[in-house]
Amino acid sequence: MITTNDKFGSINVKKLSERQAIQELKRLAKVISIHNINYYKYSNPKISDSEYDALWNRNKLIEERFPHLIQKDSPSLTVGSGVSDDFKKVKHIEPMLSLSNIFDENGLNEFITQVNKLLDLNNNEIIEIVTEPKIDGISASILYENGELILGSTRGNGFEGEDITENIKVVNGVPKKLNLNDIPEILEIRGEVYMKHDDFARLNKVQKKNGKQTYANPRNSAAGSLRQLNPDITAKRNLHFFAYTWGTSSNYFNSTLWEARHKIEQLGFVLNQPSKLCRNVNEILNYYNEIVEKRSSLDFDIDGVVYKLNRIDWQKKIGLRTRSPRWAVAHKLPAEKGVTVVDTIDIQVGRTGSLTPVARLKPINVGGVLITNATLHNFHEIQKKDIREGDTVVVQRAGDVIPQVVEVLFSKRKKNSKKYVFPDKCPDCGSEIISELLSTGEHEKTIRCTGGIVCSSQVLERLNHFVSLNGLNIEGLGEKQIKFFWQKSLIMNFIDIFELEKRNRNKKINISNEPGWGEQSVFNLFKSINKSRNVEMFRLIYALGIRHVGVQTAKLIANYYKNLDFFLDEILSSQDKESESYNNIISIEGIGPKIGDSIIEYFKNDKNLELTKNLLSHLNIKHVSFEGVESKLNNKIFVVTGTLQNMTRSQTKQTLEKMGAKVTSAITSKTDFLIAGSNPGSKLQKAKDINVKILSEKEFLNLLES
């Protein structure tokens, strides 16, 4: 994550003092510049479009309030980002500008009002606006001399781009020779290079099959494909080009934009469609709503709608800003939601037996991510929203991460639609399913399979959980490899993982002869497995996959019992709810009866208990100890800010928690210490304000050693 000092970032623009505004403009210039580089230069955005727009809009509002404070490096004065060193640089004959953004009807009305004012028109005069979809692709310029393609370039920083001539020649929709005879000697056409959804899915499938990194979204894949140093690779990626405007030789288009679009099409280019010529605000908004509706059915990504003044003489009269034209604007689409269709509803069985319904969707790009599945949470959620197979639905990324179905568009429901019937048996193993009775007398919303270890889905998920990052962290043994070994009956439980090398050495199996494996990959796998044999107690407890026991709960348990054998003995004794052992576990701060009972229930199962005890012969458990510094750091609350030179944030947190301290993210009156590294940010000042003790990195290290 990119962070900078955001001391004034939360203050309303209207309440900023001039001094605060100067600092905030400096911060925004730095942050937006970094995001521009990630987006334009590396095609690897770190934030969503909506988050970027919020930053840019805040900068705009501050500059409007304090125009005399506009910085030389202001985002409002720059376009795009720098040029890659891998390509020859190309200077644009005419700048390739960006577009200003609007987000609602008010923004549209302001745009029309401004056009009226700049043209000095009366309110009765009709202003024709060309509307077209804003393709989420890579801006490109194509230069023709006497009808022959001589140069292709990216937008770059708007004034200088990258020479991609050989690559642009293999893009669909780019004619190498123009069709018409009456064209000027030099003619430049501009547009967007993009990748269709089907081609994107195919490319990622190939990338995954070949063990290569997959692309996050079609725009990233288009950018990566267009910037290949070998044009043969670009040719295989099946890229497409939409033309929408011109650069050099603009006199060739001297009437209206609508006519110019037709002329560009006659030259042999494909236009960005659907487009429309609108004569008033209502027609424009109707077009916008139509595009929002059609978004999911398009085979390419869009992130907005573009409004352009139709008359070219009026465009010239209004002119340009430093960064964008005054006669055009982009109306951004809501990034977090989209409309698509539920193809089927499947049931996923989790490691604790929970049955989670998942909607398999017609693919749609939401917020820069291609979504094909969405969680339906549970049976009650399906009932409440009446979600059915074949329904047209609104989906969103919850917290901009997990896709979920927001609502059903009942007006689009098919007449033969049938209510979804939740299965009465586990779809994997056929075992009975139950809904547990809660202490409130109500049944839990989650329905669970009772199959346990006879349910392959549960076992596979438990194995994946066991080797995960917060578990034993076995590199090279991911979901794909676990499934492979499971299907070969080589890993059926936790113990099998640690006996795999011995069986391979004794020639009972030969993994290196299996597809996708070689001697080096097998060597690396065994090395990682052996490394994991030295494991901290809390990691093992978490890795077992006990219901309700996450990383923090596992740490609480390890900190209290300190020894795994002692922990197991105490849990067995805790089966008697009148015992001191039971009282001890439910009295641990952060545990309580719900989690305590779940732990006891797990080890009440003889197979779980036996499996855990057998693990001890394969593992070296690092027991938690508070000796030496317990009295000094136990239950002390720390916050870390800035960059430390000698250890990472994660290492610092882990070290402190081993010593009984707590690490939080926010400074409060309960905070005991703030560890301040370089570039500490606003937390340092807050700590000073409320008299929290501040430690330098050196002072912190001295504290650990004392």
Can you tell me about this structure?
With 706 residues, the chain is α+β, with helices and mostly antiparallel strands. The protein has 6 domains: 13-78, Helix Hairpins, CATH 1.10.287.610; 101-332, DNA ligase/mRNA capping enzyme (D-amino Acid Aminotransferase, Chain A, domain 1, 2-Layer Sandwich); 336-451, Nucleic acid-binding proteins (OB fold (Dihydrolipoamide Acetyltransferase, E2P), Beta Barrel); 455-532, 5' to 3' exonuclease, C-terminal subdomain (DNA polymerase, domain 1, Orthogonal Bundle), CATH 1.10.150.20; 536-622, 5' to 3' exonuclease, C-terminal subdomain (DNA polymerase, domain 1, Orthogonal Bundle), CATH 1.10.150.20; 630-705, Rossmann fold (3-Layer(aba) Sandwich), CATH 3.40.50.10190. The chain has 25 helices and 24 strands. The chain has a 5-stranded mixed sheet with strand order 2-11-10-3-9. A 5-stranded antiparallel sheet has the order 14-13-12-15-16. Strands 5-4-7-8 form a 4-stranded antiparallel sheet. A hairpin with a 2-residue loop joins strand 13 (355-366) and strand 14 (369-375). The longest helix has 24 residues, at 18-41. The radius of gyration is 31 Å and the shape is globular. 32% of the residues are buried. Mean pLDDT is 84; it is low at 626-631.
